[in-house]
Design goal:
Largest sheet: 7 strands, mixed
Number of domains: 2
Strand order of the largest sheet: 10-9-8-11-12-13-14
CATH topology of the largest domain: Rossmann fold
CATH architecture of the largest domain: 3-Layer(aba) Sandwich
Number of strands: 14
Shape: globular
Order of helices and strands: EHEEEHEHEEHEHEEEHEHEHEH
CATH class of the largest domain: Alpha Beta
Structural class: alpha/beta
Helix content: 25-40%
Radius of gyration: 20 Å
Length: 317
């Protein structure tokens, strides 16, 4: 694969395996960098490759520990800018703080906008990300944003399984558009779960719009955080007679009691991507399968570098 030698890809500490997969797809080596700490715990980053006049990409998910990975990304961007990189793209497979995108009560911040501002101020010329929690977050940035979707990877996986008697279930009303797209990709019927949020970590599903009895269910979402929504919905569809239940989500955070909940829920398979690396505990859960987005990111980076269309990627699903 011919690529201009001006292309440089660097990895933060949040997901070096994914960055390595991107470089393998592109047939290039990972950029050299030394990430260290001062005795008081402050991060220190030194580039070991010349980046003057080059097209640079930094792969860093702002996942747990969110603040540490975000700060590392900001230092990285500033480092590249001061080293005279020609263009700097922040590749953020999972964008943390995305759920704080509005003032839903008084005296609270809009942290998603704050994070967009500081990423731009630190030196990013553009952002490449996957499945923002709300697509309108692209408008929080005053620089170009390439917004990919995990549906490219997840749809291909489930299409290859050729699931018979399929019904795609949206675990809440806000996810209907995504579920409808999966129906378009995979066929089958559509059902919607109505939920009530009891607390920040507790959700109760109480009704289904659509028929799931005797069906194989695919439940789709962008994020599995505490797993309260998907587990409550999975229990409900099982009670209503669903047979095999699969969950597909782009970002597997698995925070709080998520793994415990999934272990107690009648789910046959939980499929996520590697935008966030699994914890050792999550790796031991047999129902969790991880798909890689490295090829999708690599192809997108190649097209950005060559100033080619990125939107045409979506024609493949």
């Amino acid at each position: 694969m011919f690529l201009n030698d001006n292309l440089k890809i660097f990895s933060g500490s949040s997901n070096p395996e994914l960055a390595g997969g991107v470089c393998k797809y592109l047939g290039i080596g990972l950029g050299g960098v030394k990430i260290d700490r001062f005795p008081d715990g402050e991060k220190a980053i030194k580039l070991e490759d010349d980046v003057r006049g080059r097209d640079c990409f930094v792969v860093q998910s702002t996942c747990i520990p969110v603040d540490e990975h975000l700060m590392e990304l900001l230092i990285y961007l500033d480092c590249l800018r001061r080293a005279s990189a020609n263009r700097i793209t922040a590749v953020i497979p999972y964008f943390g703080y995305a759920r704080q995108d509005r003032k839903d009560e008084g005296r609270v911040p809009i942290t998603a906008k704050l994070v967009a501002n500081i990423i731009t101020a630190a030196g990013a010329d553009r952002v490449l990300t996957i499945d923002l929690h709300a697509a309108q977050l692209q408008g929080f940035f005053d620089i170009p944003v390439d917004h990919l979707t995990g549906e490219l990877v997840l749809s291909e996986y489930f299409r290859d399984k050729n699931i018979a008697n399929l019904v795609v279930v949206s675990p809440d009303v806000g996810n209907i558009k995504m579920a409808a797209r999966y129906v378009r990709h995979l066929g089958g019927d559509l059902a919607i779960v109505h939920k009530r949020r009891v607390s920040g970590e507790r959700v109760e599903a109480d009704e289904i719009i659509g028929e799931v009895e005797g069906k194989n269910v695919l439940m789709c979402d962008d994020i599995i955080a505490t797993a309260g929504t998907v587990c409550s919905a999975a229990n409900l569809v099982r009670e209503r007679g669903a047979k095999r239940i699969c969950i597909g989500a782009t970002h597997g955070i698995f925070a709080g009691q998520a793994l415990e909940r999934l272990a107690k829920t009648p789910v046959d398979e939980v499929v996520v991507t590697d935008t966030i690396p699994l914890t050792e505990e999550a790796k031991n859960v047999g129902s969790i399968k991880v798909l890689s987005v490295a090829a999708m990111l690599g192809e997108t980076i190649k097209r950005i570098h060559r100033n080619e269309s990125v939107s045409s990627l979506f024609n493949s699903i």
